Amino acid sequence: MPHNDLILVQAGGRGTQASNTILGLQASDGHQRWQIAVPNTALLRSGLDRFYTIVAENSTGKLSPVPTTISAYSFNNGQRQWTIQDQVVSSEFADETFYQVRGTTLGEIVARSGADGHLLWSGQSNHTYTSLTIDNGTIYALTQKGEVVALSERDGTLRWIYASGDAQVSLSVQAHLPYLRGFVFGQERGGKLAGTLMALDPDGKGPLWQVAVGDEAFGPFGASSLEAVITFFETGPCP
Fold it and tell me: Minimal CA–CA distance to 132: which of 173, 176, 177?
């Protein structure tokens, strides 16, 4: 049975010691085909031929790698196919590949195959990366100094660097908004949205535009808050 007839449901609560359960249900009639137990902190990702869980140990609150486990499971029967463990600070999944920030100085980005977890490539730099996101064949990595480093998803080749000049900048990619292709920046000041929103050209030609969005309290400011702001901005001005 093809996995496009399968619904994955993660059941359970966060913030508890109990494990969560992932159920494999047939989309046609809701019949349960299998179930597996996973840690309550597991993030679920779906690929073409298998699905994955990402489990990171609790962070110390400092910018440092934490033990992270990625496991792959069969859509057909829920059986685990492979597991890898590493010390990382950020993990993203795109195009059947995992991308991770790792290393003692957080200057390394690695790519791992979703098929079996083996290392595809590793790229070292003198940057300290804090997060990364993937869009349209490009890795956008944010550094501790507020720089955006664009790398090739295929082999990690450097494409361009943009220095925002603000170490508190947040990075998000909103590919579903055509005129906002690339990244969108917001600045954080004491939990408040601090004035500007900037879109960058994904080809490295610099800012596309910058707008003032006010200074009302929106914190904590992060990717989810940024999405809400962008969606609101697209919908129309404040009444």
Answer: 173
- Pick the closest to residue 167 from 144, 186, 150 (CA basis): 144
Structural domains for the chain: 40-163 (2.40.128.630), 166-239 (no CATH)
CA–CA separation, 204 and 184 (whole Å): 13
Pairing of strands 50-56, 43-46: antiparallel
Task: List per-residue pLDDT tens for the chain, 239 residues long.
Answer: 446 689 999 887 655 556 789 999 999 999 999 999 988 778 899 998 899 999 988 655 667 788 899 999 999 999 999 999 999 988 999 999 999 999 778 899 999 999 999 999 999 999 999 889 888 899 989 898 888 899 999 999 999 998 877 766 777 877 533 223 334 444 444 544 445 667 788 888 888 877 766 554 333 333 333 443 333 333 333 33
CB 164 within 8 A of CB 171: no
Instruction: Give DSSP secondary structure letters for 97-154.
Output: EEEEEESTTS-EEEEEETTT--EEEEEE-S--EEEEEEETTEEEEEETTSEEEEEETT
User: What are the phi and psi torsion angles at 233 (to 5°)?
Assistant: -65, -40
